[in-house]
Amino acid sequence: MRQSMTLIPTLRELPSDAEIKSHQLLLRAGFIKQIASGVYSYLPLAKKALDNIEQIVREEMEKAGAAELLLPALQPAELWQDSGRWYTYGDELMRMHDRHDRSFALGPTHEEVITSIVSDGVPSYKRLPITLYQIQTKFRDEKRPRFGLLRGREFIMKDAYSFHTSEESLDDVYLKMYQAYTNIFTRCGLDFRAVLADSGAIGGKDTQEFMVLSEIGEDTIAYSDSSSYAANIEMAEVNCDYEKSAELEKELTKVDTPGQKTIAEVSDFLDVQASNIIKSLVMIVDEEPVMVLVRGDHELNDIKVKNALDADSVEFADEDHTKELLNCSFGSIGPVNLPSSLKIIADKAVESMMNAVCGANDDDCHYVNVVPGRDFQVETYADIRFIQEGDPSPDGKGTIRFARGIEVGHIFKLGTTYSEAMSAKYLDENGKSHPYIMGCYGIGVSRTLAAVAEQFNDENGLIWPTNIAPYDIHLIPVNMKDAAQEELAERLYNELKGHRFNVLLDDRNERPGVKFKDSDLIGMPVRVTVGKKAAEGIVEVKIRKTGEMQEVKVEQLLDVLTNIFKEL
Amino acid sequence: MRQSMTLIPTLRELPSDAEIKSHQLLLRAGFIKQIASGVYSYLPLAKKALDNIEQIVREEMEKAGAAELLLPALQPAELWQDSGRWYTYGDELMRMHDRHDRSFALGPTHEEVITSIVSDGVPSYKRLPITLYQIQTKFRDEKRPRFGLLRGREFIMKDAYSFHTSEESLDDVYLKMYQAYTNIFTRCGLDFRAVLADSGAIGGKDTQEFMVLSEIGEDTIAYSDSSSYAANIEMAEVNCDYEKSAELEKELTKVDTPGQKTIAEVSDFLDVQASNIIKSLVMIVDEEPVMVLVRGDHELNDIKVKNALDADSVEFADEDHTKELLNCSFGSIGPVNLPSSLKIIADKAVESMMNAVCGANDDDCHYVNVVPGRDFQVETYADIRFIQEGDPSPDGKGTIRFARGIEVGHIFKLGTTYSEAMSAKYLDENGKSHPYIMGCYGIGVSRTLAAVAEQFNDENGLIWPTNIAPYDIHLIPVNMKDAAQEELAERLYNELKGHRFNVLLDDRNERPGVKFKDSDLIGMPVRVTVGKKAAEGIVEVKIRKTGEMQEVKVEQLLDVLTNIFKEL
After folding, report:
1. Cα–Cα distance, B36 to B54 (Å, whole number)
2. What interactions and quaternary structure are annotated (chains A, B) (predicted)?
3. What pLDDT, on the 0 to 100 scale, is given for residue A204?
4. From the CA atom positions of chain B, what is the Rg in Å?
5. How many other C-beta atoms can be found within 10 angstroms of the C-beta atom of residue B560?
6. Chain segment A139-184, per-residue pLDDT in tens
7. pLDDT, tens digit, for every residue of B39-91?
8. Is pLDDT above 60 for A127?
9. Residue B330: what pLDDT?
10. Rounded to whole angstroms, how far apart are CA atoms B432 and A106?
11. Do B74 and A35 count as a contact with CB atoms less than 8 A apart?
12. Least reliable range by pLDDT among A133-147, A222-236, A514-528
């Protein structure tokens, strides 16, 4: 493509409202343009990069056995009422009325539409399983759109849906999708992790998020430094062998700790490690109070408490309620000498504590030399704390590190949530009807573009991985008015295109400084400069990523470029 | 693709609400599925056919020098208020509010968005001209969606926009687009015409519609049987040499014609040809009455009257007004002995009439032997009638025929309509600002798919042209439980794919009758059947279009198929 014929409106100034690198650079490099809050135009360079991502997605979806279709953005309200999401999705669902005052949703996802299509079109077990996908513009009315393409209101997604007669079949496709997603993000050049996630309110089972590691990510991931283990920190199991101290038991003693309430205060005041203090809280579990204990250097994870007690609801008791139960304030709660009606759940780490410190249910007092099992009885020991950096990885391989991540993909075993709500059923070999067992699998395509931009840039601009780059080569005649330069550039443009390189030819009459600055900013992998040595048949090749430059004789250019792209 | 892994929900029954072939067949062959009135899902076969059309469009757009981008569907109301279309577009514009109660349009076209982008991004004449296009889902709230994909409310369009500093530059790109459109519809295999069209209210200049010839089309086209001339009948110029009769002038005579009012009645009663009767009407042109004459066998075109008189408005006088002016009713109007204040405009054909018949401005009477110029004076002779079948083509080549057409493309010189309304300006070499001169160029991509289906089918189903067909070859093992058949089919599936054929393998356990019926219905160009002679290495090749069948030895299959596709 000749640069004179396309639209790359680069900006010299930093856009004032763009907080993060990818947003700033995609704007400055003329890839995108905002039309409304969270709504962007993809200008020609972004369109080409999106095409490359979509092509990778299509190839991997095909390998995974999925067939492509295209569903409408306009979805009649009735379908969403059938699934119930019309009432639960809230303000994020964009809604409208047509000229006959019928209600429609602008699709944020397409479970309802695809379930209705498959329900009509695949009535029998004979045609199952089936996996269908689309790449499509979606709508979600985010409360606070931000970070450019990372959290927009109109965005491009790949969404896939699978339909099964058995859990095993769903497991099989889920695994294929896991592999496809791994391939896709690897081919995009991204540093990412597949992360165990919370299946949340939607009622499904297994679910994993694909997270691109980035400090601007909104989620915290716990991952192993020596294996593929990764999970959202809410989800990460703690799998520690807590060694019991060899210390001898000492006598339980009540000490004055006037005004000392927090773990840090007590630790300072009594000169003990936080890891030797028992943090005690009262929670209301399905309307019954329960005392919950974790080690002073650990954080309680209330989701784990809920799961460990198989409870429907858990919440923290307020200070009045606590006072009523224990006759003390928050900072002085402890498990010793409790009323027998108050059960105790404790994190596994507590079991190994020896001669520890805890609140005495008496303001301004603590116990020291507390021994679990001797001084109080625990109903349930369970994993109820957040994992921490330095913990062993739950899979037994390596040590846990934390990172922040941008969610670019999500695979999800839906089960029968939608098919039951919508009465979508197939007939088995005996003519009996069952709800389809379903999976769904999403990739944020435009978000992936932003994630790549976020991961690959330097102070001069973007640095596109070769698989995503809008063009392979940026070919720059320094001076378009120099006949030798122009002629050689035109010749190379045609020759390189003939060898299947995608070439952007900067045929603009601009100063060399402007051309080079723009070139670094838009970030094609390789720049070929046709300058003063054009008459001698010499050009300059620069690798954007490393900054490495070399002069190359024209007759060797193809070989040099082929080698560079082999290694990039 | 294995048929077991994709979704082709064929129907045996004719869908009750589908009136036309393409709509019926696309539904029955499992290409599309309606989700709401005028809103369709494109199932896997349709998606593949759309991809093929889009690929052709992209290649031709690239050749024409256009760069691809992707604009948002959500467009802030403010942009549409700037252009004025927010107020004039009416109910067909789909509108919505976001969670903050800001108004948006769902884009039916993108003149506003692209003008705003180019206005910001291309401030100088140096970067002009530029042509940008996208392929995108559009929304238009049709009052009566019908004919399936032909008139839907959510549809796929290619829309291109060009920006210029001069009319000559616009002319140049308009011509390039004309050529690109001709190439696109030719490559789609369509029988079409580029038709001169009315630029209508939008205020542009030249405009042509690309019409696929089809009896279900909503527009009538006048085209030459021996040249590329074609126009909407409203637009077609009449370019006849009317020969003056050699007959001698006879004496003007008033005759009684009791109760004879219409041309047919008078023609019968007086035994004269309709072509020798003058049809007379009174029109109100810019508030002044004018008498309008055409030959009795011709139809008046009021748009031509308006253009010929350079009028702002023309309408027919009602009977009361006519009576007041001429003291007679509609059927007796004539140009002889008029009040001098009443000017006459006549079609050119009238000038050559001799000894004709006309009304006598006296009920139940007509004049015979009327001679224009002798018996009445005409202020203006002009082309004011509709062209007719049998007329010479206005370009002097061949004879006019009529056809009905489906509009699939439209190219349009917009001029400065949008840029002026939106104050979108560039700076010229002297730093002076001017509104961009614009063109716009649309193709109904999903409509083109339907038009192809409408043109290519028979009583058994669809017959896809090779360039559009979802798959080249439908490979059918007759009995999947026969090991020899299954094995050979699998082998051929892989071999043919290896030779770049797109193959659909019917690996379903269905009866042969079902497989063959489905195969004819979905209409891939070539069917390869692996049947009883599989063990002998013989398969059957059938060409869908001609029904031609032949037995082919497996080792010759590739050559046979290659030759067939060369000729299809």
Report:
1. 25
2. Homodimer.
3. 54
4. 30
5. 16
6. 999 999 999 999 999 999 999 999 999 999 999 999 999 999 999 9
7. 999 999 999 999 999 999 999 999 999 999 999 999 999 999 999 999 999 99
8. yes
9. 85
10. 44
11. yes
12. A222-236
The C-alpha atoms of residue B309 and residue B285 are separated, in whole angstroms, by 8
For chain A, give every domain's residue range: 45-68+115-237+402-453, 253-382, 471-567
Q: How far apart are CA A290 and CA B125, in angstroms?
A: 75
Token output for B302: 């009021």
Give me the CATH code for the B19-237+402-453 domain, please. 3.30.930.10
- How far apart are the C-alpha atoms of B507 and B513, rounded to whole Å? 14
Q: What pLDDT score does A202 carry?
A: 46
Burial tier of A425 (Cβ tally within 10 Å: 0-12, 13-18, 19+): middle
The CATH superfamily assigned to B253-382 is YbaK/aminoacyl-tRNA synthetase-associated domain (3.90.960.10)
**What is the nearest CA distance from A113 to chain B, expressed in angstroms?**
8
Strands B503-505 and B473-477: parallel
Q: Of A479, A355, A435, A441, give the one whose Cα is nearest residue A160.
A: A441
Strands B67-68 and B130-139 come out as parallel
Cβ contact, residue pair B117, A50, below 8 Å: no
pLDDT category, A14, cuts 50, 70, 90? Answer: confident
Cα gap A495→A528, rounded to integer Å: 13
Tell me the chain B residues in contact with residue A98 when contact means C-beta distances shorter than 8 Å: 94, 141, 153
CB contact under 8 A, A153 and B96: no
pLDDT tens sequence across A35-82 = 999 999 999 999 999 999 999 999 999 999 999 999 999 999 999 999
Q: What is the pLDDT of residue B313?
A: 87
Exposed / middle / buried, residue A548 (Cβ in 10 Å: 0-12, 13-18, 19+) = exposed
B471-567: which CATH topology?
Answer: Rossmann fold (3.40.50)
Distance CA A464, CA A460 (A): 13
Torsion-angle region of B395 (φ positive above 0: left; ψ -120 to 50: alpha; else: beta): alpha
- Which residue out of A2, A3, A127, A436 would a mutagenesis test of the B interface target, given it has the greatest number of B Cβ atoms within 10 Å? A127
DSSP string, B394-456: TTSSSBEEEEEEEEEEEEEEEETHHHHHTT-EEE-TTS-EEEPEEEEEEEEHHHHHHHHHHHS
How many degrees, rounded to 5, is the angle at CA A146 between CA A55 and CA A155? 30
pLDDT value, residue A200: 54
**What gap in Å lies between CA A142 and CA A139, rounded to an integer?**
9
Q: What is the ipTM of this complex?
A: 0.89
Superfamily name with CATH number, domain A45-68+115-237+402-453: Bira Bifunctional Protein; Domain 2 (3.30.930.10)
Give the distance from CA B36 to its chain's centroid: 25
Cα separation values, B239 from B196, B199, B347, B442, Å: 15, 21, 11, 30
Best to test chain A binding among B40, B58, B127, B155 (most A CBs inside 10 Å): B127
A-B Cβ pairs (cutoff 8 Å, strict): 175
Render pLDDT for A402-441 as a digit per residue (tens, 0 to 9): 999 999 999 999 999 999 999 999 999 999 999 999 999 9
State the pLDDT at residue B234: 86
Average pLDDT rounded to a whole number, residues A513-517: 97
Angle at B159 between CA B157 and CA B160, to 5 degrees: 160
Please state, for a pLDDT cut of 70, what percent of chain A lies above it: 99
Q: Which residues of chain B have pLDDT under 70?
A: 199-205
Provide the strand spans (E) within A187-333: 192-196, 207-213, 219-224, 230-232, 253-256, 278-285, 288-295, 314-316
**Is B96–A94 a contact, with Cβ atoms under 8 angstroms apart?**
yes
For residue A75, list chain B residues with Cβ-Cβ distance below 8 A. Answer: 35-36
Q: Name every chain A residue with its beta carbon within 8 A of the beta carbon of B42.
A: 69-71
Q: Check residue B312 and give its pLDDT.
A: 85
